[in-house]
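writing this on my phone so excuse typos. first protein, seq and then structure
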Amino acid sequence: MSQFDLQKRVSLLERIHALPIWHGAITTQPLTGGITNVNYLVQDSRGKFVARAGADIPLHQVMRFNELAASRAAHAAGLSPAVVHAEDDLTVLEFIESRTLTEEDVRDPAMLPRVLDLVKSCHRDVSGHLRGPALVFWVFHVIRDYAATLQDKDSPHAAAASELADTGNMLEQAAGPFDIVFGHNDLLCGNFLDDGHRLWLIDFDYAGFNSPLFDLGGLASNNGLSQAQEQWLLETYFEAPVSDDLLHRYSAMKCASLLRETMWSMVSEITSEIDFDYAAYTAGNLARFRAALDDFQNT
């Protein structure tokens, strides 16, 4: 860690210690695994909490007012831990004694129905608890904006940006017409917690109104669901047999989800200060995207 990064960490810890919500002395411990925010486990005399540090990231369409509103609404809907405190770029959340799911966990036939129930509840219940302005997460706009950012910042991936944006435009035409729900929009396995009794959904950085097919496609592609599991996912979610039209639109949106994750990582390679191998993450997701696009165009 550079001297500059060390000073930033010290300053952040000083700010966490100075929050007016603690009862007695606190201890802090870094929580690893986050690839967008810096998180600390904080303990005071009452119990444990998670302190999240993260300013607005317009390059990734992340606006903290939106994340805070979604987090509070998701808690009110019974899906997520409570927001204990929020000020500036710091948010303190209730800590849940739990384990984070892995991709294998999500694929487990015993776990997948529980995961889908949580996603359906997010789509069905959270919007009724939202207060204040709320954002749309339109993945095709995000792809176009990422392409422009890669070119503006002379990214090593700039030469491919126009092709990727054109592919996003093609997928946008193929994925409609669109239903709209309030989506989580970042269904990585790490955003599901299991406390031994129930599941929790966390990290609403990218939450917003969107097609339900984006979350379903993201859930499948991020966690390596089989083709049979994807069929089950669609039948169970929509409570009806899967038509050829729905399967076509879903496949297009799954490709868009993978393309967005790939370009998120490409932009993060040149902008993020978090110690994470974004280049390897880009390569893995680009391969997944190319394979899904090939299937989509040849089916």
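second protein below, same order as before
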Amino acid sequence: MRVLALLTLLGILASLAVAWERHGVEASYRTVEVVADSESWQLLARREGVEEVELWRALREAGVTSVAVYEQTLRRLQDAGRIAVLDGPELRAQARSGRLPSALVPLTRRPDVLRAVYALPLDPEAAALVVQGFRNALGDHRVRAVLRDPPVYEVLGWRKDLEEIGLGFSPAEVRRWEQRGFRVVLRPRNVRTLDAERLRERVRAYGRVGRGLTFIFEGVEVLGYERLIPQAAEALREMGGIYGRVEVLAAARRMRGEQALATRMRPRVVRVFSIGQDELDRMDPETARDRFRRAVRERNLRILYVRPFHSVPGGVDPVAYNLRYVREVVADLRAAGFRLGPAPPLPVPRLPRFLLYGSVLGALSAGILFVGALTRNALSPIPAVVLAGVGGVVLLGLGQISEVWMRKLVSLLGAVVIPPLAVHAGIPRGASRTLGGGRVLLEAGARLWLISLGSTAGGFLVAALLTDWPFLMAFEVFFGVKIAAILPLILVLLLELAEHKAPSGDPPWQRLWRALDRPLSLRTALALVVLGSAGLLLLLRTGNVSLPMLSLEERLRTALEETLVARPRTKEYLVGHPALLLGIAAYLVGAPRWGLPLVVAGTIGQAGLVNSFAHLHTPVLYTVWRTANGLVLGTLVGTVAWTVGWILLRTQGLLPAPGHPTVPRAAIREEISP
């Protein structure tokens, strides 16, 4: 077992080297791009009667660096007054009413008039967009000029289908934004009718408005979905494009094809945080600021996509209201030490492979150590070596098939076994000692910190196993979040049962199984209901999509974030760490019947601590900071709880003054015995 412990230690050292390298990459990744949505801000200016030029100047002064420009469509050209559009029935109706210009009357007698749309561009660039855009999207046979003076183009198809097809970007519009001092971010639409050649032609047209552009796709699909994503990625890479991938937590709302495109665009991807207009209008600026701030600091998102509030309190100037909101968002970024500018892609950490193999070996050794602890070291060296060898071969084979899944499964193994091992090693053994309340608190606190140090080492091991570009960009995530939250609690219970050998000599799982045959008392049933509810709540609160928070909890989180910057996790500082401190203290005063359930509950904090390191999109320094804050706060909460409990127990005469060794355990046992 010493060899296994040494291998685990080597794995932890390898993981620390990985963490150091990763921190270097993350520390240099500090540029944030603030992108304004052009259409929603233009709508605000028109509603409020403000000159657009003045509004955009104010936005630029407020800190906005870029503008998202949408692809032109028939509807957008028509809304901008650059084109007139009539379908066949409208054309004939106007001819019958005598309102159709005489030059257009012959069009009403064309055989295809009822299944075509007629576009009348009012400037050469609009004409070029219509012709080139529709020929690219639909093919040459569906677009033709039917009049030259005035120019009229016939496009075969239904108006409803045609008016939302992307036609390309207006070079004049892009130049106008650049002259105003903004970097342009393009928002193209997918066109499913494209073949590979016409898709490349479309991307080349994007390149004519600039190189090195960032693309944030509009709609529900990325360009090329679903057959041409490889060709789309290749074409975008050739023109130096960057894919802006919008963060969406709910799988059902994610853009179709985004993961396939991001994988092929590696590493030319930047993560984008955006609040939809509907959602934005249901919140206040302070809430929106908090979400932008967390996105940058906690999740490494580097493009903030900013829309204005269209619903503002009565009597408030909407323009001033929104400008102040943007200035505050930018001020938050600067206060946190971020720079403003074009957001580059996250660099890929260059890690030697032996560090990965060392981390794998460390997690595997920890797993065998756990088996050894569960069997009370009944596992002899030869089976242990065989087990390690078989595990290594299986993992190497899995790594050849899918390295991502190998990383996921080994990191899950580490996340599941290391917290129980740390807790098991940190619980006091042997006869209880008579200590004063202060001494008990000091020793319990010291053991809590040592246990947490062990779990933190496990967290670094898990993080090292997942340190790869797909996990850092959140394309891939830690597998088994809920398993890693619940299973360590059960494993701690099994380890403690194994530690106290039964007279029958049965292993702990058989003792647990036999316990199910006992009659169920009302007290036990109530306890199970409470424990089951707590476990269900823990499961539902785990993961990216979980139960909504209470308003009190939300305010507490915000207050902690403003005070400590790296906000600790509630289940660590308010539940897990205090419970573990109290559980250790109960063992120290000779009350294991109280100590065991508290220690099991305290494992929630240790499992959560390791889980924090499994969030690879969170900077590793932030995770360490958050862990330390949680431990300090949890120790304080546990100290208060212990002090209050100690005073109450002393008041009731259940605990003696220091120097009377036998009374406390006996008194407590009498009190709690059924």
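Residues 661-674 have pLDDT under 50 and may be disordered. thats all i got for now
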